[in-house]
Amino acid sequence: MNYSEKEAYPKHPRRRPPDPVWDHFFATSLKSPSYFAAKCKYCSIQFNHEHPNQLKKHLAKECEDENFDNDIREKY
Ligand SMILES: [Zn+2]
């Protein structure tokens, strides 16, 4: 028998969007598989169908949670 080794690694039910800005947001799948809702890990604000640029703008200018790291802000 010749089983594929890939079967040892079950697919993740959720694919993460590729942009690194998503490191700072939780991505939640919506009904349509190509859309994600983004929830900020710091202030918990939620965005629907936002573009990565909007999320970066939030990190750069809008996020005001006290846990937010200014080093992150400098990157965006
Ligand atoms: Zn935030």
From TrEMBL:
<protein>
    <submittedName>
        <fullName>3645_t:CDS:1</fullName>
    </submittedName>
</protein>
<feature type="domain" description="BED-type">
    <location>
        <begin position="16"/>
        <end position="70"/>
    </location>
</feature>
<keyword id="KW-0479">Metal-binding</keyword>
<dbReference type="Pfam" id="PF02892">
    <property type="entry name" value="zf-BED"/>
</dbReference>
<keyword id="KW-0863">Zinc-finger</keyword>
<keyword id="KW-0862">Zinc</keyword>
<dbReference type="GO" id="GO:0008270">
    <property type="term" value="F:zinc ion binding"/>
</dbReference>
<dbReference type="InterPro" id="IPR003656">
    <property type="entry name" value="Znf_BED"/>
</dbReference>
<dbReference type="GO" id="GO:0003677">
    <property type="term" value="F:DNA binding"/>
</dbReference>
